[in-house]
Write a structure and sequence with these properties.
With 190 residues, the protein is mostly helical. Helix content is 57%, strand content 0%.
Length: 190
């Protein structure tokens, strides 16, 4: 009789231990999948080509989740990112975003570019991107991204080739190219 109970107790403990380890194993497997991201976005948070690739370390989780979802769903188009996002299941999107959001935003390497004295229309940007362009719900951090990356995204919203945020499409279409250029220079200096 005692042997029956010991076997039952041991069996239950093995099942409980396996169930408790499952989330940790899943997180470990996800982190393994995400290592490839460092090939472009950098192993230390600095992108390999900051002119075309954004910093994602320390970016806001809700923003990263939305971007991964949009790449996966085809609402934001980039051949590399779309194929990478499709390797993640819907259930892995938020944990993947959390993985990068929990890392430290990398320190700027080198001197910041000189900022223009004034930047038109910045006040409407600050409403979402916050003072200093450090981001916050609902908008991403922009301070620290390069001029080239920023102007490319701003122009993509303006010309309608990026439409995964219709507020940004409208705002960028209402700005002149010169204003977008000045604001991109300003933000990249922060």
């Amino acid at each position: 009789m005692v042997n029956k109970h010991v076997s039952s107790i041991l069996g239950a403990l093995v099942i409980a231990a396996a169930a408790a380890a499952a989330p940790a194993l899943a997180q470990y497997a996800l982190e393994g999948k995400l290592q490839i991201c460092g090939s472009c976005h950098g192993q230390t948070g600095q992108p390999m080509d900051p002119k075309t690739m954004p910093i994602i370390w320390g970016q806001f989780e809700n923003f990263l989740t939305k971007q991964l979802h949009d790449y996966r769903a085809g609402d934001r188009v980039n051949p590399i990112m779309s194929s990478m996002a499709k390797t993640l299941s819907q259930e892995e999107l938020r944990p993947a975003a959390h993985y990068f959001a929990s890392k430290m935003w990398p320190a700027r390497t080198g001197a910041a570019p000189a900022a223009p004295a004034t930047a038109p229309n910045v006040a409407q940007c600050v409403a979402c991107h916050q003072q200093g362009f450090v981001g916050g719900a609902p908008a991403p951090r922009l301070a620290g991204q390069t001029y080239e990356y920023l102007i490319k995204q701003m122009n993509a919203f303006a010309d309608g080739s990026r439409t995964n945020n219709m507020d940004m499409v409208k705002i960028m279409q209402e700005m002149s190219p010169a204003d977008r250029d000045t604001i991109a220079h300003y933000i990249s200096s922060l």
